[in-house]
Amino acid sequence: MGSAVVAELLGHGHTALALTRSDASARAAEQAGAETVRGGLTDLDTIRTATADADGVIHLAFSNDFSSPEALAKAIAEETAALTTMGEALVGSDRPLVTVSGTPWVPGRPSTEADPAPTDGPVGGRGRTVNAIPGLASRGVRSTAARLPRTVHNNGEGGFAGLLTTIARQRGVSGYAGDGTQRWPAVHALDAAVLFRLALERGPGGTAWHAVADEGDQVRDIATVIGKQLGLPVESVPAETYGPLGAIFAADQPSSSAHTRAALGWEPTHPSLLDDLTNIKS
C-alpha cells in the first residue's frame, strides 16, 4: 500500500519521505521514488522530527502480527503513540494529517462516512484512536481519516482475502466462517492510493472518507474463487480458525463510498476483488 501511495503522490507533483523499518522496505520505497528515513512506529523522536518538517503526513503503518490478542493490543498501542506524536507536531500548522483505519460495520446496512469507527471488539482501541484524529481539526490540523475496507488487493493478494488464501494453502481447504453470506467490502490498492492523495490535497479537517470500490462480496463467493484457483475444496470452518480476528471474519460488514465519490470525485477504475482473485497462482 505504501509504495502505491508514494507512486500516486509522485505522479501528481508531490515529493515523499517514507519512514522505513528495514533494508527491504527502504529499497521498496526508494524504488518507488521516495526519500527514506529509518525508523518504525516506536521511534517517536524520529516521527516527531519528520512530521514537523513535512508539508503533510499520510499514516499507513500498522503491525501485521495478528497471532494473538496480546500482539494485536501491542500493535494498537504503538500506533496510538505514533499518531498522537504526529498530531501534536502538527498542531496550529493547518497542514494535513491523513490517517488510515478500517471501514466501520453497522448492523443491517452498509456503513457510511458518517458512522464512527467501532470502539469495542478486538480492534476497539484502534477505533478510539482514529476517531480522535479528525478532532485535531479544532487545534489547527487538517486531519482526516481514509478508511480502508477488509480487503485491499493487488494482483490477487492482500487484505482479509489474502489471509483466506494463506490459510487455505496451509489447511488444504478454502474456508469461510459461518454460512459465508457475510459481506466484505474491498478496493484495489491503486484505487485506494488515489483516495489518500485526494484526502491529502482536498480533504477538509474533521472528515472521514471510504476507499470502497466493492460494497460487499459474500465471503463464500470469495472463498469459492480462491478454492478454484488453488484446486481446493470450499467449506465452512469455525470462526476460531482465524484466531483473534475470528469474530470480525464472521461479521457482515458492507460499506458505502457514495459520499466520498460525490465530494472528492474519487472513482475506482481497477479490477474488482473477485476478478483480481483470478490472478492467484496454485
UniProtKB/TrEMBL annotation:
Gene3D superfamilies given in the database record: NAD(P)-binding Rossmann-like Domain
User: Which InterPro entries does the record match to this protein?
Assistant: Epimerase_deHydtase, NAD(P)-bd_dom_sf, NAD(P)-dependent_oxidoreduct
- Which residue spans traverse the membrane? none
Stretches for region Disordered: 104-126
In terms of superkingdom, the source organism counts as Bacteria
What would be one Pfam family of this protein?
Epimerase
Any idea what this protein is called? SDR family oxidoreductase
What residue stretches are annotated with the NAD-dependent epimerase/dehydratase domain? Answer: 1-206
